[in-house]
Amino acid sequence: MRPLRGENVMHIHSLGYVRALGLCLALGSGTALAADYATIVLSTTVDRPVDAVWSKVGGFCDISAWLKLSCVYTSGSGDLGSVRRLADRIDEVMVGKTRYSYTYTQPTTTILYHGTLAVEADGPQKTKIIYSLFYDQAPPATGQAQPPNREQLTRRFAAALESMKKLVEGK
Q: 9 is in which domain, residue-wise?
């Protein structure tokens, strides 16, 4: 049986669509390859049990106490999907959560910024606080903000860990 003219055209159109999609994926993958992903992982050990540490620093807006900036929920109440606004200008969305950790992203950034705060037991009366950052440090396209400086981020979050340690240990 001979295919109808419309069927033949549709087949050609579908093949063209598949080729176009392949070209888009190939071009899109070039963008991902241009990224320069950086990770910063910092930690400190505190002389308190894990539950006591998490109760002091683990709330999504507890950041206001140890990073010394304002924090309000603009959506949610500290659970997965909650949005916090820091210093009246930076929005962060909680995208992951476990009993002793959470991960957030900054949805409007062009650098794919993510951070994770976690605590884990390091003996019966000791806890390790771990702060991990992940972002694209590649030079931006014209008109975009510069990515954060690695040394500046390291200093800022090392100071945050020290602040958490003091807060938890009551020093």
A: 1-34
Q: Do 42 and 57 share a domain, yes or no?
A: yes
pLDDT at residue 3 tops 80: no
Do 21 and 79 have their domain in common? Answer: no
CA distance 112 to 110: 6
What's the Cα-to-Cα distance from 146 to each of 92, 110, 167, rounded to whole Å?
A: 19, 9, 32
Crossing angle (nearest 10°) for helices 50-57 and 150-169: 120
In this structure, what CATH number is given to the domain that contains residue 46? 3.30.530.20
The total domain count for the chain is 2
The mean per-residue pLDDT over the stretch 125-145 comes to: 85
Read off the tokens for 51: 């539950």
Classify residue 125 as left (phi > 0), alpha (psi -120 to 50) or beta: alpha
**pLDDT over 70 for what percent of the chain?**
77
**3-7, 77-81, 92-96, range with the lowest pLDDT:** 3-7
Considering the entire predicted model, what is its pTM?
0.77
First to last CA, the chain: 86
Neighbours of 156 (CB within 10 A): 14
Do 14 and 114 form a contact (C-beta atoms < 8 A)? no
- What residue type is 130 in one-letter code? I
